[in-house]
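Researcher: Good morning. I'm working through a list of sequences from a screen, and I'd like to move beyond sequence-only analysis. For each chain I'm collecting a predicted structure so we can compare shapes side by side. This is the next one on the list. No need for commentary yet; just the structure.
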Amino acid sequence: MGLLYTTSHGQDAARFFGPLVDLYECVYAEPPYEEGPDQVARFGDRLPEEADRPGFVLVTVTVDSSLVGAAYGWTMSAGDWWSRADADPPAEIRAAAKLAVMEWIVHPQRRSEGVGAELMRRLLADRPERYATLASDPRSRARKVYARNGWRQVGASVLPWGPPMDLLVLDLDPKPFR
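Model: Good morning. Structure tokens for this chain:
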């Protein structure tokens, strides 16, 4: 069987929460993250709340009914920004609604096959927001992928439970991610 991509909105995504937590645990056990049970539990606990946020969308990819990748986000309202940011973004970004990309993960055995790029393309497609934003660990492989695809750093953030993160923004006009 081939790759099956599915897009879910709001609580319709709940059917993927269990497998999504399992995939998260697999991906974030790797360096540089090395997350353990507490971080995995925090991730799983916040999924239902995130699915209730305006504009929530989850894009998944399965092979033989096994989840091998996912990306999701929701609309960050105009005027809002990351709560622990070290600086405000440019005024036009702060003033606009933004797609907050919360996760983009691919099973280690399915990387370098274009799965991640397709997940991100689908997540960013047809969004009403002008910009997308996310927090990325500067030590991660994904951070280099973001830079190659036009994401630019506009700040940093430090969470009490993790490493400092780069805050990135992507202009969604024209449509990005190759």
